[in-house]
Design goal:
heterodimer; A: 174 residues; mainly alpha; Helix Hairpins; Monooxygenase; 2 domains; 7 helices; B: 612 residues; Nucleotidyltransferase, domain 5; Actin, Chain A, domain 4; Substrate Binding Domain Of DNAk, Chain A, domain 1; six-stranded mixed sheet; globular
Chain lengths: 174, 612
């Protein structure tokens, strides 16, 4: 039976670490789908069709999880027995900074100021890149999972803001 | 026991069907090339079904009744699939009479109350017969295309229509994806494609990445209520207003609509067209329509398509300039205003070298051919997405999203629930599809009732509900109580679809009408199913006999032989039992084969080297 018990890194036969060769992940994902996708099963028995569906579903889920840095970091922490969602602390200065950012963001939205929004997006992107770099160190080298969990919470916060900005941009263009 | 392992027989020919709003087509791969199959009046079969006093007419024959007997002649039935009366804008209610009921609409005709599923099945039957004649054999299977933006109810309705028509449905394929296959394989270029598909009744826009033989849909969006028909309707309303006509008899409205459609088509070639329409009671309406007026009247419809285009770009996280090629699909893209608007938006000329009416059917035929294995395994791979989010209604009517839109298919998500009463053995869920926050603003798909949860104290039972969406974009739900491992039974009450009983009844009615023997049909269906299974198991044994020890091998070969014996008889139930037994006997073998596949896939060996 297909279960989620095998971890996603083992599934793709990749080392369980945050720094991941995304091209290699892409290529392994496709190789697996090329064998197990339900479209390969049209001439197989019902049992094999069902297995293909399950494997293909698992492959997509594993790929989706490992591809995005935030999801990958969360998943690794879970493997290490750390719950990244726990109400851990977030540094005070980060929170203050976030309140500021959010206000700037709300203002840009209210004023429909596309330029201000672009500037904020650039800053957000840079901050997210920094966090991803720090996470690679904390998770793979320093193995400081508590600190990593805090950065994951920060990253989640930034991504939410990023998505909001994208939504607003689409709405404006309509 | 002796078993001869036969060479895999060449699969029966499979066909691709474009079940369109205005026209439908069937195509097949013949001698390695995909071709559209022609009927008596060419390749396009008008999607028109007329219920005559003594028979059902489809296509060109039916079209002549649409003005004379509009209430018994259904055109553009695709608009009504999986739709309730409340979903339909006023202009699509005329000239029909609808049965007063909840759920999917039904047309009141002289043949009784008819579901859009049955109407669609009539079209499919004609295409099936056309294919059988061209190929010399009943098609072994069919890929049927649907708009990418079709929701679960519309997809299920299409699937049910295939079943009523007696087609072995291999796959529902999204129309833009089908077009991308046709173009992608034709041009053999990699990169990011956009498919702009404006059909008779639906608009679809998809962005795909083509690399290494993988067609990956990055985003899809669309408008299920926007198509070439709307251009006709708009011009029609304009003409009525201009001539001081408040309302028209259904017959006259049809005539005017038909004249408008012809005028629209002519305006794709000429700058101006003059039209004369004979209305009832000796009335006449004549008008001159210029391309400029036409374009001014319909500019907002053209603009509406770009709302979806922008949405898809944003979902895919792509800028306009990152789109390498834009493909035009659907007869409505022949309009110069569309071509101009698309070229302007993307800053490049769209590709139109394949016939926009045929490209979807061609792509479907290529996929059908791939599915039945007439090509080497792994020739190309389609990774499509779900167009709309799936969620369940929670307290206060708020939707909790379970599967977000644009997720690669197949996908499954699980959610855990608990009981709130001691001894509670059942619970129900309302599943909706859409992006809005409140359930009443989304599309109701179905209510799922779980039964057989083991009785426990309140809050102790942990019911894990799994929502699985398959490659066709169709949802199924299963549930299990985690502590006991007991599977709960799930029954589905579709909001707009047909229940299992309704389909069974329709099948029965169809046979009563055709005076065919239902038992004979069941027998031939079970035999076909048994043939497919026998072949599948034989191929598996030929490839992987080494995975089995002697005892396992014997169990499987015994089940194989029993099924072969059953097939010689005329008892369809015995065949069904034989199928079930063989399936059971191969469960472990199938799992081992899958494990081996994954290992091989990752061992870095190419697909070709394993196939050899």
């Amino acid at each position: 039976m297909v279960t989620g018990e095998r971890n996603y890194f083992e599934f793709f036969q990749l080392p369980p670490q945050f720094a991941l060769d995304l091209n290699e992940l892409d290529s392994r994902y496709r190789k697996i789908q090329a064998w197990v996708h339900p479209d390969k099963a049209a001439r197989l028995s019902e049992i094999e069709k069902r297995l293909c569906l399950q494997w293909s579903t698992l492959a997509s889920e594993a790929y989706r999880t490992l591809k995005r840095p935030l999801e990958r970091a969360r998943y690794l922490l879970k493997l290490y027995g750390v719950d990244p969602e726990e109400k851990g602390e977030v540094a005070r200065e980060f929170l203050l900074e976030q309140i500021e950012q959010r206000e700037a963001f709300e203002q840009a939205l209210a004023n429909r100021d596309l330029k201000a929004l672009d500037r904020l997006a650039d800053r957000l992107q840079a901050a997210m890149d920094d966090l991803v770099g720090a996470l690679a160190f904390l998770l793979d080298v320093d193995r400081n999972y508590r600190q990593a969990a805090e950065l994951v919470r920060r990253l989640a916060f930034l991504e939410t803001l990023w998505d909001k900005g994208n939504c607003a941009r689409t709405e404006w263009s309509e | 026991m002796l078993l001869t392992i036969q060479e895999p027989t060449p699969a029966a020919q499979a066909v691709g069907i474009d079940l369109g709003t205005t026209h439908s087509l069937v195509a097949a791969v013949i001698g390695g090339k995909a071709a559209v199959l022609a009927g008596d009046h060419g390749v396009l079969l008008p999607s028109v079904v007329s219920y005559r006093p003594d028979r059902v007419e489809v296509g060109h024959d039916a079209r002549r009744w649409q003005t004379e007997d509009p209430q018994n002649t259904i055109v553009s039935v695709k608009r009504y699939l999986g739709r309730a009366l409340d979903d339909l804008p006023e202009e699509f209610r005329l000239p029909y009479r609808f049965a007063k009921r909840e759920g999917m609409v039904r047309f009141e005709t002289r043949a009784g109350s008819i579901s859009p599923v049955e109407v669609s099945a009539e079209i499919l039957k004609v295409l099936k017969a056309r294919a059988a004649q061209a190929l010399g054999n009943e098609p072994g299977g069919a890929v049927i295309t649907v708009p990418a933006y079709f929701d679960d109810a519309q997809r299920q309705a299409t699937k049910d229509a295939a079943r009523l028509a007696g087609l072995n449905l291999l796959r529902l394929l999204n129309e833009p994806t089908a077009a991308a296959i046709a173009y992608g394989l034709d041009r053999e270029t990699e990169g990011i494609y956009a498919v702009y598909d404006l059909g008779g009744g639906t608009f679809d826009f998809s962005i795909l990445k083509l690399t290494d033989g993988v067609f990956e849909v990055l985003a899809t969006s669309g408008d299920p209520m926007l198509g070439g028909d709307d251009f006709d309707q708009t011009v029609c309303r304009f003409l009525m207003a201009q001539n001081g006509i408040d309302s028209l008899e259904p017959v006259d409205y049809r005539r005017l609509l038909e004249a408008t459609r012809l005028a629209k088509e002519q305006l794709s070639l000429d700058e101006q067209v003059s039209v004369e329409v004979e209305l009832g009671r000796g009335k006449k309406l004549s008008f001159v329509l210029t391309r400029q007026t036409f374009e001014q009247l319909t500019a907002n419809l053209v603009q509406r398509t770009f709302v979806s285009v922008r949405q898809a770009l944003s979902l895919a996280g792509l800028a306009v300039k990152e789109i390498q090629e834009v493909v035009l699909v659907g007869g409505a893209t022949r309009m110069p205003c569309i071509r101009r608007a698309v070229a302007e938006f993307f800053g490049k000329l769209p590709l139109t070298d394949l016939d926009p009416d045929q490209v979807v059917a061609i792509g479907a035929a290529l996929q059908a051919d791939l599915l039945v294995g007439n090509r080497a395994r792994g020739d190309w791979l389609l990774l499509d997405v779900i167009p709309l989010s799936l969620g369940i209604e929670t307290l206060g009517g708020v939707v909790e999203k379970i599967i977000p839109r644009n997720s690669t298919l197949p996908i499954a998500r699980s959610q855990e629930f608990t009981t709130w009463k001691t001894g509670q053995t059942a619970m129900s869920f309302h599943v909706v599809q859409g992006e809005r926050e409140l359930a009443r603003d989304c599309r109701s798909l179905a209510r799922f009732e779980l039964r057989g949860i083991p009785p426990m104290a309140a809050g102790v039972a942990r019911v894990q509900v799994t929502f699985q969406v398959d490659a066709d974009g169709l949802l199924s739900v299963s549930a299990r109580e985690i502590n006991s491992g007991v599977e709960a039974s799930v029954s589905v009450i579709p909001s707009y679809g047909l229940s299992e009983e309704e389909i069974a009844q329709m099948l029965k009615d169809a046979f009563a009408h055709a005076q065919q023997d239902l038992e004979a049909r069941r027998l031939s269906e079970q035999r076909a199913e048994a043939m497919r299974l026998l072949e599948a198991v034989e191929v598996a044994l030929a490839e992987d006999r080494a995975l089995l020890d002697e005892a396992q091998f014997n169990v499987i070969t015994q089940a194989l032989e029993s099924l072969r014996t059953a097939m010689e008889g005329r008892d369809w139930q015995a065949i069904r039992n034989g199928i079930e037994a063989l399936n059971q006997a191969t469960v472990e073998f199938a799992a081992q084969r899958m494990d081996q596949s994954i290992r091989r896939a990752l061992a870095g060996r190419t697909v070709e080297s394993i196939a050899e």
